[in-house]
Amino acid sequence: MNNKFLLIAGVSSVLLLAGCASGPDEETTAKMADQDARVSQLEQDVAALKAAHENDADSAMEAKQAKEAAMAAQDEAARANERLDNIAQSYTK
């Protein structure tokens, strides 16, 4: 009796483990492929967003540099105008 019980337990254990050890079915494989495609798409989206962010940062830096150059040119023009005014005043005195 005890041997039959051990034999039945052993056979059921083997069958249970064999069922768990089977590979993924087609539905699971399709889901995994879909998830892989989604991950790839997300990676591409992240890369595109990073590139856009870098371009925005570059554009902002270029705009800041252009503004600084314009301010420097304006200051230099004001200085030149003052010098011209001083020269003109020296001739009229």
From TrEMBL:
GO cellular component, one term: cell outer membrane
Name of protein: Major outer membrane lipoprotein Lpp
Taxonomy, superkingdom: Bacteria
Source species: Vibrio inusitatus NBRC 102082
Intervals holding Sequence repeats: 36-46
Biological process (GO), any one: periplasmic space organization
InterPro entries assigned to the protein according to its UniProt record, in alphabetical order: Lipoprotein_leucine-zipper_dom, MOM_Lpp
Pfam families per UniProt: LPP (PF04728)
Family, as annotated: Belongs to the Lpp family.
PANTHER family assigned: MAJOR OUTER MEMBRANE LIPOPROTEIN LPP, MAJOR OUTER MEMBRANE PROLIPOPROTEIN LPP
Residues spanning the signal sequence: 1-23
Gene3D superfamilies to which the protein is assigned, alphabetical: 1.20.5.190
Residues where lipid is bound covalently (N-palmitoyl cysteine): C20
Name of the gene encoding the protein in the UniProt record: lpp
